[in-house]
Specification:
heterotrimer; A alpha/beta; B mainly alpha; C alpha/beta; B: mainly alpha; MetI-like fold; flat; C: alpha/beta; 2 domains; six-stranded mixed β-sheet; 11 helices; elongated
Chain lengths: 241, 290, 274
């Protein structure tokens, strides 16, 4: 078991966003979280990345409890990459600088030492000609792919994707999804919060339907999409498909 | 008149096919622009003429002219005033970086998020309240005479040192607020992205938040620098003979205010271009952000 | 034009005052700011020994006594004398004045005389040097050579900055202050070693404002540029001639000397700087 979440609770003030979530993710698996806005998908991802402290429950990464308050969050975050809906590239740095910043600071190695690694990633995702560009000189699809490269440069064991195609123009969604397919093919463990039902159905190993802070239903995509067990799942799918 | 036109048209138009002259709208706008320029010029000229003609007709003008715009006094005092102005420039040059640095430290203290650092945060809040609440001149007096009065030996009791300290203490409170506004203007998602990469809080601040924040607040900070350029003159209250004081000496010597007018001119020569430059910077930044 | 107006006012004034002239000397009649009242300005606050307890109307203190004696000789006494307070600058600002004359140790200089009018001098003030005891212990003496090496302070609006440069030309740049209090503060803080003040002010400063003050010496009053104090008038004020008449009379009959002896007696006994 790569990642194991048990009875996770998270609230913002009086607003309880996660109400006892259980989720297990195997090595190399891609799990898609679907559900309406506000159902708790993003919050769940942010909790896994320790961007939000949990109120109750545990998250285990390779059997290590990362929600332990004594645990230093920094090395954990280095093992878990995260990509955001709005890319969140650093606008004052070139694509290459965006990618090199964390490896430089964390490994203490120089730009020159790290550059071949970064260049290889840019090559692989067909962005070699964009390395010296600033974020505002790139399309949304290119920016999002740089954001993925930035996360990959830390060699994470798990990748979290928070609606990474939602802010993109429709014709740019494909190039980002292609990157996700490639990562899946390499055996990366991934959790996606997504509205791309077709993509989830095609690639996911497991799909979870979140409703009001709970995982209401989970299963292989064909089962969940074709024969949902819960009435609310069926209702949600009928609205989005 | 027709012939050159016919010759020029094919050459200029070339492959484009059809040459467009100014549109009717453009012609109309051009006419209007010319008209408003003319009105502006005439009204400005009339206003200046009114001032030049009417002011000297006031009963006190002769006296005012003699006391404030005295050519002889001006010529005698201006070179020495210019000399004294270098002290203002020097004080500005050593104050500005110290203010930028200490203001940044204060802003970072104020941004402290860990409970263990709360005392620092509290200090920064009180500091900003205190020094923004007290007029600069009082801070200069209290620190400039008060601290040397504790019995420091020379040169550590120099009014240059403690005048600088007073200016830095006062101005950094304002500059810290400017930095803070910049830091707070950086969207939380930038911090989240940096934190999610596993960067430490210090690195997030240093590499992600501050570079963006500082770029954003440079124009506002420059406005502070311009008022600093004027306020260094206040250090004269505790002894140093800079331009304002030198003008005061001449005022006493000649019982005449012209030296102050000379000093004001020298200040304007420096501050007007600086103000213009900052205004342009702010305008450019606003264009970029919209 | 201006002169015509002025002449008109004077003529009117003469007519109006004709019947009340019994209260005033003929000279001052109709020339004052307010008819029948002489308005005298002094500093805010006014200092010992020039004015005692900041109360000039009592006539205590050298300048208070001189001013009231001049007033009396011009025909103003009791309620006919009104006191107002001004800063140094107000006296030389252009525009209408709120006083007939101003008395607060204005040194008479040719430069100033171009823009305001002075009366004849009523006092010749020796410039003198105030230091603190540590400076004396360190070897400061009443010689120009010794004074050169001191760090000097002075008050901007006085003639001292110029005199320090001229008489001593010290090695280090001098520091200048807004008023005597500030310069004394700098002396206490050790930012300057010596300040230059007129002798009466110096004696007061050394004795009262400083715990360890010493008047190191005074410059001779007879030199090229004696520091003489005069009343300040708005330029062209005809009242000045009346005041000069009074001052001349006071000098002639010894009144001025007597007032000086009464209020400035400590001034003797301070060594002359060589």
């Amino acid at each position: 078991m790569k990642l194991e979440i048990t009875d996770l609770w998270k609230k913002f003030g009086a607003n309880v966003v996660c109400k006892g979530i259980d989720l297990a993710v195997n090595e190399g698996e891609m799990v898609c979280l679907i559900g309406a806005s506000g159902s708790g998908k993003s919050t769940l991802l942010r909790c896994i990345n320790l961007l939000e402290p949990v109120d109750d429950g545990r998250i285990l990464l390779d059997g290590l409890e990362i929600t332990d308050p004594e645990q230093d969050p920094q090395p954990i975050r280095q093992r878990i990459g995260m990509v955001f809906q709005s890319y969140n590239l650093f606008p004052h740095m070139t694509a290459l600088e965006n990618v090199l910043l964390a490896p430089r600071r964390i490994t203490g190695r120089s730009r020159a030492e790290l550059r071949p690694m970064a260049e290889a990633l840019f090559e692989r995702f067909n962005l070699a000609d964009r390395m010296t560009h600033y974020p505002d000189q790139m399309s949304g699809g290119q920016q999002q792919r740089v954001a993925i490269i930035r996360a990959l440069a830390m060699k994470p064991e798990v990748m979290l994707f928070d609606e990474v195609t939602s802010a993109l123009d429709p014709e740019l969604v494909g190039e980002v999804l292609d990157v996700l397919r490639a990562l899946k093919a390499e055996g990366m463990t991934m959790i996606l919060a997504t509205h791309e039902m077709g993509f989830a159905r095609e690639v996911a190993d497991k799909v979870c339907f979140l409703d009001a802070g709970r995982i209401l239903e989970e299963g292989p995509p064909e089962q969940l999409f074709e024969r949902p067990r819960e009435a609310r799942t069926a209702e949600f799918l009928s609205r989005v498909l | 008149m027709g012939a050159p036109d016919r010759q020029a048209a094919p050459a200029g138009a070339g492959a484009a096919g059809r040459e467009f002259g100014p549109s009717r709208r453009e012609l109309r706008e051009r006419r209007e622009r010319r008209r408003s320029l003319l009105i502006a010029a005439v009204s400005t000229a009339l206003t200046i003429a009114a001032i030049v003609i009417l002011v000297p007709m006031t009963p006190g003008w002769e006296r005012v002219q003699k006391a404030f715009f005295n050519e002889g006094v001006f010529l005698k005092t201006f070179p020495k005033l210019l000399d004294a102005f270098w002290l203002d420039v020097a004080m500005f040059l050593w104050c500005a970086p110290l203010i930028a640095l200490w203001g940044l430290v204060l802003a970072l203290m104020r941004d402290a998020r860990s409970p263990a650092l709360y005392p620092l945060k509290l200090f920064a809040i009180l500091y900003s309240d205190l020094f923004r609440g007290v007029p600069v001149i009082l801070v200069i007096y209290l620190i400039g005479f008060g601290i040397p009065g504790l019995g420091l030996p020379r040169p550590w009791n120099s009014p240059y040192i403690w005048g600088t300290v007073a200016l830095v203490l006062s101005y950094s409170a304002y500059v810290a607020e400017v930095y803070r506004a910049g830091i707070e203007s950086i969207h939380e998602s930038q911090r989240a992205a940096a934190v999610s990469l596993g960067l430490s809080h210090g690195d997030v601040m240093r590499f992600v938040v501050l570079p963006q924040a500082i770029r954003r607040v440079i124009p506002a900070a420059m406005n502070n620098l311009i008022s600093l350029q004027k306020d260094v003159a206040l250090v004269s209250f505790i002894g140093p003979v800079e331009i304002f004081r030198q003008a005061g000496v001449y005022k006493s010597l000649y019982a005449n205010f012209t030296p102050y007018v000379g000093a004001a001119l020298i200040f304007l020569v420096v501050t007007v271009p600086a103000t213009r430059a900052v205004d342009r910077m702010i305008a450019r930044q606003q264009r970029r952000q919209s | 034009m201006k002169h015509l107006v002025k002449a008109g006012i004077v003529a009117l004034g003469l007519g109006a005052v004709a019947h009340s002239a019994w209260a005033q000397g003929d000279c001052a009649a109709g020339k004052t700011l307010t008819d029948g009242v002489l308005t005298i300005a002094t500093g805010n606050p006014a200092y010992f020994p020039w004015v005692i307890d900041d109360a000039p109307e009592t006539g205590k203190g050298f300048e208070a006594a001189v001013a009231l004696e001049i007033a009396r000789r011009m025909g103003f006494e009791g309620d006919a004398v009104k006191w107002v307070r001004t800063s140094f600058d107000e006296a030389i600002q252009p525009g209408a004045k709120n006083f007939d004359f101003n008395i607060q140790q204005y040194s008479i200089t040719p430069e100033r005389d171009e823009f305001i009018d002075f009366s004849a001098p009523y006092y010749t003030a020796a410039q003198s040097v105030v230091v603190r005891k540590p400076a004396v212990d360190a070897g400061a003496t009443a010689t120009v050579d010794s004074l050169k090496s001191l760090k000097w302070g002075a008050v901007e609006s006085t003639t001292s900055p110029g005199l320090i440069q001229e008489l001593i030309s010290p090695d280090a740049d001098m520091l200048l202050y807004n008023d005597v209090a500030d310069s004394v503060e700098a002396l206490k803080a050790g930012q300057v070693d010596a300040i230059m003040l007129d002798l009466p002010s110096a004696l007061f400063t050394a004795a009262v404002l400083l715990d360890d003050g010493v008047v190191l010496g005074q410059f001779e009053t007879g030199g090229d540029s004696p520091d003489e104090l005069g009343l300040v008038f708005e330029e062209g004020n005809p009242l000045r001639d009346c005041a000069n008449e009074a001052i001349a009379a006071m000098k002639a009959d010894g009144t001025l000397k007597a007032i000086e002896a009464e209020w400035l007696q400590d001034a003797t006994g301070v060594p002359v700087i060589k």
